[in-house]
Design a protein that fits this description.
CATH topology of the largest domain: Leucine-rich repeat, LRR (right-handed beta-alpha superhelix)
Number of helices: 3
Number of domains: 3
Strand content: 5-15%
Helix content: 10-25%
CATH superfamily of the largest domain: Ribonuclease Inhibitor
CATH architecture of the largest domain: Alpha-Beta Horseshoe
Strand order of the largest sheet: 1-2-3-4-5-6-7-8-9-10-11-12
Distance between the termini: 58 Å
Bound molecules: zinc ion
Largest sheet: 12 strands, parallel
Number of strands: 12
Amino acid sequence: MCKICKGDYDKDTTVLECSYCTNLTGIPDTLVNLIVLCCDGCTNLTGIPDTLVNLTELHCQECTSLTVIPDTLVNLTGLRCRGCTNLTTIPDTLANLTKLWCDKCTNLITIPDTLVNLTQLYCNRCTNLTVIPNTLVNLYWLECSYCISLTTIPDTLVNLTELDCDRCTHLTNIPDTLVNLFELCCDGCTSLTSVPGTLVKLDRLNCRKCTSLDTIPTNLVGLKFLYCDGCSLLTSIPISLFDHLQKFECSECPYLPQCDPTTYQTRMKLYNQAAWIIQEKFWYPIWGKRKQIEEGFKLLHEID
Ligand SMILES: [Zn+2]
């Protein structure tokens, strides 16, 4: 039993925690002074009163009977409604929202374009979501992995530093305007044909199993982590990247020179030398390089 079921509240209550109570079917509409309401996992809760206009934080994750978030909750700055599988919309009146967690809201088709103050949006596994609005220009964190209905990321999201769009299988490009990106995770984006060379602040690129990707840009001058396992079209990695790469994995890349990625991690400097020689082999497979090629493989073997 939660505080509501026990009657342990009054009209002056400002913070209420009643998560994981399956007996709870409603929240009293007299709690007009509530600022924070946590009712995660209340699977029989069918509504949130529209009188709770002072709420700034609402946590109603996995409330699977909830069909609506009231549009009167205009003071909300944080809304966590992950796994509310019967929710079809987020109210367009929530203009003060800065953080929205709506992962696994599988019936959500859009995010309102009026939520212009959002800085963080987590909509992973919203499998019916077709659009991220181009008005969300204050976003710096966007997680939309497994959004299989998404075809684009707006080119207006220029403040993004983190983008996780793993397994957005219909995404065909990453805008070249996202120049502030620090991390890009696009594992399994099988329709993605390129990564923009303008992402000069990129520190980490996870692009495993991007089976349509045929190049890694040379001008990713800040890249420290590159994971491109299973990129079956990749034929080379720009040598200049090894000046700053700290971790590199490329298993199951049939067209990349054969080498064991686990050897790269501990002695990167020696690796750089070997990798360079092996890359030479790939690009200039001529007799004159033969000795260097042998040396390269030997070096990699030694690191191991
Ligand atoms: Zn209860």
